Amino acid sequence: MTPSSPPDHRQALSLSPTPARTGGGIAVMLGLAALLLRTAPGQEPLPQAVMIAVAVATLWVAFALWRGRHDCLRWTAQGLIDGQGRVIAPRDAIQGVDRSPLSLRPSNGFNLALRRAQPRAWQPGLYWCLGRRVGIGGLAPPSESKAMADRIALDTAPPPE
Question: What is the pTM of this model?
């Protein structure tokens, strides 16, 4: 038996939602939509319209979760890239990684602070990008999210003097 070689830190690191977490998220969204649609008929016209609108929005989120169930994020030489090849956060634009419990971040995830604003993007359960902030996580396993956050922080840290 030969000893295993050390890990190649240049290869791409990937993060994707797990089927169980995605299925749970879709089930919660469908349950909420069903509850709203079931109780809407007994309401006054304005609350009824609001409940139906929220139910439709919830169904849209459930569909977006289902559509993105095979999506992933990859950390490459270019930066953070989604499954369609869009660059979410260029490597040279990343200013820092924030995993503090008091930050506005996805569940079990982390935030990236960017030096320049990026186009808005959102894949429910995987990432969101608003201006100079990118939130990563949600339906991804916490251990993989932590590993990616550590790797990004290590790769983007300024060199020691």
Answer: 0.76
Q: Nearest CA to 96 among 17, 52, 150, 51?
A: 150
Inside any domain, residue 55:
yes
pLDDT in tens, 9-31: 455 688 888 889 989 999 999 99
Q: Which domain holds residue 62?
A: 16-67
Structural domain includes residue 127: yes
Residues 28, 101, single domain; the answer is no
